[in-house]
Design a protein that fits this description.
The structure holds two protein chains of two kinds.
Chain A: H1 2-8, H2 15-22, H3 26-38, E1 42-44, E2 51-53, H4 55-59, H5 67-85, E3 88-95, E4 98-105, E5 120-122, H6 127-135, H7 139-145, H8 158-171, E6 174-177, E7 184-192, E8 198-207, H9 208-211, H10 220-240
Antiparallel strand pairs in A: 1-2, 3-4, 3-8, 4-5, 6-7, 7-8
Chain B: E1 2-6, E2 10-16, E3 22-29, E4 41-42, H1 44-62, E5 72-76, E6 82-85, E7 95-96, H2 107-113, H3 116-122, H4 133-142, H5 144-151, E8 155-158, H6 160-168, E9 178-180, H7 181-184, E10 190-191, E11 196-197, H8 199-204, E12 214-216, E13 219-224, E14 233-239, H9 240-247, E15 256-260, E16 264-271, E17 282-287, E18 295-302, H10 306-314, H11 324-329, E19 339-341, E20 359-361, H12 369-395, E21 402-405, H13 412-422, E22 426-429, H14 434-447, H15 453-459, E23 462-466, H16 472-494
Parallel strand pairs in B: 1-5, 5-14, 9-12, 15-21, 21-22
Antiparallel strand pairs in B: 1-2, 2-3, 4-7, 6-8, 10-11, 13-14, 15-16, 16-18, 17-18, 19-20, 22-23
Classes of the chains: A alpha+beta, B alpha+beta.
Chain lengths: 241, 505
Amino acid sequence: MLLQLVASRADPVSVSDVAAALGVAKSSAHELLRTLADVGFLDQDADTGRYAVGDGARRLAHGPLDTNLLRSLTTNLVDALAARSGESAYIGVLRGQQVEIVHHVFRPDDTRQQLEVGDRHEAHATGMGQVLLALDPAAPAVMRTLDPVRLTQRTLDLPALRTRLVEVRGRQWACTAGERTADRADVAAPLRGRGGIVVAAVGLVGRVDRVVGAHRDPRTALLAHVQAAAAAISAELGATL
Amino acid sequence: MVAIDQGTTSTRCIVFDQQGRFVSVAQREHRQWFPEPGRVEHDAAEIWANVAKVVPLALAKAGIGPGDVVALGIANQRETAVLWDRRTGRPQGRAITWQDTRVAPLLPELARRVDDPTLRERCGLPLSTYATAPRLTWLLRGSPDLRRRAATGDVLFGTMETWLVWNLTGGVDGGVHVTDVTNASRTMLMDLRTLDWDDGLCDAFEVPRAMLPQVRPSATVHGRATQVLPGVVIGAAIGDQQAALFGQACFAPGEAKCTYGTGAFLLLNTGSEPVVSTHGLASTVAFQADGEPATYALEGSIAMTGSLVQWFRDSLAMVRTAPEIETLARTVDDNGGCYIVPAFSGLFAPHWRPEARGVITGLTSYVTRGHLARAVLEATAWQTVDVVEAMNADAGLALTALRVDGGMTSNLLLMQTVSNLLDVPVERPMVHETVSLGAAYAAGLTVGLWPDLAVLRRHWHCGARWAPDLAPAQRERERLGWRTALAQTLTGAAVTPPATGPPAP
């Protein structure tokens, strides 16, 4: 209703306008306006302090995040992730029960590699997928019908997956080793847009022995690279998406 | 390693580590002055001030001090002319940039003094508003005072790297007045073979030798900074497109890179001899290390690539953001018979038909926004093909792979299309910042941080690769469609406009 009020006015509105129109105290009106401004639904004019409809609200009409836009915003930082970690770097988004690769940077070892953009993998069996199943706004609906296919000996069944997702939610990263294919391991972390909403995941994929240690924990340096990349990319996305 | 990339819209400082990996960046935009239509100027003093700001910022982000810097390399926007007073260090008017077309009316007269074949043979460039020399003619004709002080060497000329090196090495207090062969090769005053100023060309453009900087190799000790990075060796200065070629490790004849931005710049390494183009390309110096012969390149520039996508976004409102053109293009499988030739201000390399105007061909009721989006992307790919084919013909060799960089390389459909239509693999490097990287590489070679080109070649890693995936017959059908559309840009221009204008609103 507050958004409708602001959108219906030709000129930006002040806190008093809103308080009067809604019949609430100025302090309450201020708090409501600030909340909407913080998530980008309203823009506040730096000089007059008045509010107008922000890009965030307009974007609601545009549907889901465009993955080509996402890739172009993140290219430099994903390049740096691959260069520093020495492993292949990816960005993935949740598509139903699968994670779709929307960006891929080759491992910097000069072996011939294939671009994997557009490939889809079972979300429950990959690090990026588990990050998204734990944190993506669409995940609760997906989880209600998920029947995890067993791809390797290490693929988690539903109860184990639920336990894992609780851990992922707590630590804000995921690591799988041999859960999708026996020889691959990965580390992934969430990417957040404006308002802190998880929009995608960033991750590294490599040989099991290179990515995880003896206890199938991610190697410290690789986890740090992924977390640093996720923070830097989220800062970028938070400012634009 | 620290690189300064003094570009058209901004000045950036990038710190690289010993493996040539990106560490930190700081950037500052400068004001674009448009005093009259066709005029585009920069304030050289503002740009120098920005250098003094971004360098300490980038060092701070990297957590290092000037003492940790091995050497500095400079890459710069080319062809932009700066004049300044040797005694006060003050710029004489604003810098006239490479996009500025004010000298167009001078060109017919200049063409009578020095004919096109001589020009191409001697300096490698066709007479155009791009090169620096006609700007100097214009500036000195406009002010007898400036001409007098230029003749005595009290007013100095430089492109951007010259201005920055002079200031970094002390300015009025002992500043070094030098340029490098790549920048000098874009002025239209340098002989491509002697790698020095040409008296005949200087006379033709009325440029006194006293105002010109000394021409040096790209990778050499240009001086030691006393400002901004005190004590640090300036180990390289190189034009931005040549820097990108170097940063892409295109060190051998036959290796080429294309930078896709607003426009696109394709450079092909042609080895130790300049190739005089008979197919509408420029011949230019690619690189020279201290004490070594120069490496040359053929260059073809494409005016409208990213700017065509911007037009599609802003003027036609077909997409919200430029990257979303890929989403729209992928809603269909092909161009639906539709072709767009973006000859908005004529056809450039390799056709050079200024009278041509853009066309959209093959419109039927079947064609949707998605087909138009495909045609926009294919226009960039076909323009690349046209320049590459001209290069192959000039150089007498066939390109076997194309290295790409620039913002449009994140458009995967475009990159696949370029590969399909060129019928060679297209490769994107892992380090996106090829201009700065090229300047850092060149400076690192000078000071011995990296022993040779072989080591630098090993730094290049492929970030993504696209292999051709189109049947030859299909490619030829598409080529016919593009060629037909191209021909119509010329017939369209020949039709006389109606005598009366459109009705007044």
